[in-house]
Structures are given as C-alpha cells and as structure tokens.
Amino acid sequence: MEPKNTDQIQKNTKTQRSIDTIDRRILSVLTKDATTSYAELGAMVGLSAPAVHERVKRMRKAEAIKATVVALDGKAMGKSFLAFIHVEARGWGKTTELVALGQLPEVEEIHSATGDTGLILKVRTENSVALEGFLWRLYDIEGVRSTKTYVALSTYLERGVQPEITHSLAEGGNIK
Amino acid sequence: MEPKNTDQIQKNTKTQRSIDTIDRRILSVLTKDATTSYAELGAMVGLSAPAVHERVKRMRKAEAIKATVVALDGKAMGKSFLAFIHVEARGWGKTTELVALGQLPEVEEIHSATGDTGLILKVRTENSVALEGFLWRLYDIEGVRSTKTYVALSTYLERGVQPEITHSLAEGGNIK
DNA sequence: TCTCTTTCCGAATTTAATTCGGAGTTATAT
DNA sequence: ATATAACTCCGAATTAAATTCGGAAAGAGA
C-alpha cells in the first residue's frame, strides 16, 4: 500500500458536514411531501428511521431546512390575483419603508434587483380592485418614482427551492 | 403542466364549508411552522386536538392546503443566484416547450403574464455562469424573441400564500 | 317539534417521533 | 502502526403525537 501524500491541508474542522447525495434525496422527497415518515424515507434511501431523523435534525439545525410549512392555495384563500410589481425608487434610503410593506399578508416576496428597477414585489390579492388599492399605497410612499405591474394570467409552476443542481448548466452543454 | 382548473373541482365536490376565522388562524400558524402539534394548535384557537385535526383534514381534502413541505435555504443548497426572467415568445403555441423548462430544478416558477412579456420565470442557480447557461438554453427554444433578466441582489421577504386578507385594500383606504 | 347534519369532545388506539447504548468506520494524532 | 476521538449508523425501548371512535351539543330545514 503506497503512503498517500500528506501535504494536502484539511481545514474543514469546525465546518458543518456538507450536504451529501443521500441528504439531497431525502430533501427531494420532503420538498414535495414533508408528511413522509422517517421510516418511509429510510426505506427510500437505504437507512433506518433514526439515521434519517438524525440527518434531518442536523439540516434543520444548520438551517439548510429553514422550516416546515403548509402550502396554501391562493384561490381557496380568496386571492385570485397574482402580480409582480417592479418598483423604481428615488434614493436607496427609502427602501426601509418599502420593505415595511411586507407586513401585508398580500405581499409574498420582496427583492432588490438589478436592471432598470430597484425592487421586485410578488403580491397576491383578492381581485384587481385590491391590487389597485395596493398600488395606491405604494405611490403614497415617499420616493417611489414609478412602478410596472405584471399580472400573472396562468401559473404553470410554483414551488420552493429544490435540492438538485443541473451541473451541465455551468458547462454550456445539454442536460446530462 | 396545465394550470389547474379549481372551478371544476369545486363543482364536482359537494358544497364545501367555507374557510372561517378559526381555519385562518390555524393556517396562519401552519404557514410558519407545520410541525406544530394539533394539541398546541387547539390550545391556541380554543379547540381540542381532534377538532383541529378534523379541520386540517378537511382543508387538505378541499385542497385549500395543497401540501406540507420543507422550505430549503438556497445558499445551503448551493444556489446563490436568484433571477426573474421575462421571456417574450413569438406565438403562443410554443409555450409548451418553455413550460417544459420546469423539469429543471433551477426553475421555481413559471407564469404567463400581461404586459410586454409573455412568460415570467423565477430561476435559482449556482452562480452567474449557470444562469448564463440557462439563458442559452432559453434562446435555443424556437420562438423565443427576447428575454430580460432581473437578478435579485437581496431578498427581504420570501414566503408562500398567506391566509389573511387586508380588506381595506379593496376600499382604497389605509390599513384598518 | 323532529330529523338530519355538522362540529365538537374525551377516551382509546394506533402510529410515528425520539431517545439511547453500543457497534462499525473513518480521520487524526501520537 | 496504534490509539484516540468523532461520526454515522442500527435495533430496541420509550415517549409523544396522530388518528379513530362513539356519542353529546348545536344548528338548519321541513
């Protein structure tokens, strides 16, 4: 047996164990149905229930899993209108007031963005009247220069962060 | 994937009891933490565990609750880049190919939209190179005329559909 | 009023989550 | 090489929660 070169420096001592293939397979199931039991998950990935539990617990602690939540249906909640609103604001200091809009349950996402727009909002309202009401509130905020609203007519896909990565995207080639 | 026509589902089912205040309070908790036990939920809303269970079961069946899922951290999954891509396509028949992009785990949302754009995509990738790779694949699709990409610099809020409704929005006034 | 339906509760049961001790593995240091 | 420490796993035992069940209370409609 040849001795390995020990020159390599290993410096991951205090870092959390990285997410491995089994972790991603577990997460792949849980992003679709988090009511799956540890026993079932174990059968899928070839581990015992306590082993899966241990992994999930670790990922929760490391905040790779941010939360377990129910996904609601917009229409059933009485919110038929979905819109993306691009907000152009004068001066970056006023972003605070805009972010405060997150208090409203109609606002689901707030991102600052590149391009010709400062903020992107995802807003789901009861109807077009409520959306208009929201836009009025937006213009009431000091510094809001302009907005562009894109109303979603149909939603073909809507889901959270997926654990898989398409490595071929970073190579310019086709899907593996 | 075809957008789900919930109207028909509603018709076929016997008149479902509508979502009441207690239901919304339960959902409000579950959208933040679906690991909350029925006993705890019951204590919060003044019901027994079986009563809460019954309500949740009903809402699942009625698909007001679409699923229970884990919310993952994009960075922890190795996806640091978030972008919204507006796609303008020539002819509506080609939408099928675009919707097929939903196969990629990087694609989180696909909506058809009003405005000067046909589709809005929400895409989360490893880095800018992978995002560029994705854009190349987009342009490979027949009929894609142009795209506009908005990269999210910071995310201030990101959550699912909320059960509460701000009624004052539909009245043009202030928050109640 | 009577009946049908819905919603709820407490108790009992079933199922799953969680804990625990120890075996096997790997990495690191002596 | 060998010991040490740190992981990861498993099966068994325990604890906690989900689920089922029968029947009581409340409401709707005839």
What is the count of DSSP helices of chain A, taking H or I runs of 4+ residues?
A: 5
Largest interface: pair, residues per side = A-B, 82 and 86 residues
Class by SSE composition of chain A? alpha+beta
Compute the separation of the termini of chain A in Å: 36 Å
User: Strands of the largest sheet of chain A, in order across it?
Assistant: 3-4-2-5
N-to-C SSE string of chain A, H for helix and E for strand: HHHEEHEEHE
What percent strand of chain A? 25-35%
Q: What is the chains' assembly state?
A: homodimer
CATH hierarchy, class of the domain at 81-151 in chain A: Alpha Beta
Second CATH tier, the architecture of the domain at 81-151 in chain A: 2-Layer Sandwich
CATH topology of the domain at 81-151 in chain A: Alpha-Beta Plaits
Helix content of chain A: 25-40%
Number of strands of chain A: 5
CATH H-level homologous superfamily name of the domain at 81-151 in chain A: Lrp/AsnC effector binding domain/regulation of amino acid metabolism (RAM) domain
Please state the overall shape of chain A, judged from the principal axes of the Cα atoms.
Answer: elongated
Q: Can you summarize the main beta sheet of chain A?
A: 4 strands, antiparallel
Rounded to an integer in angstroms, the radius of gyration calculated over CA atoms of chain A is 22 Å
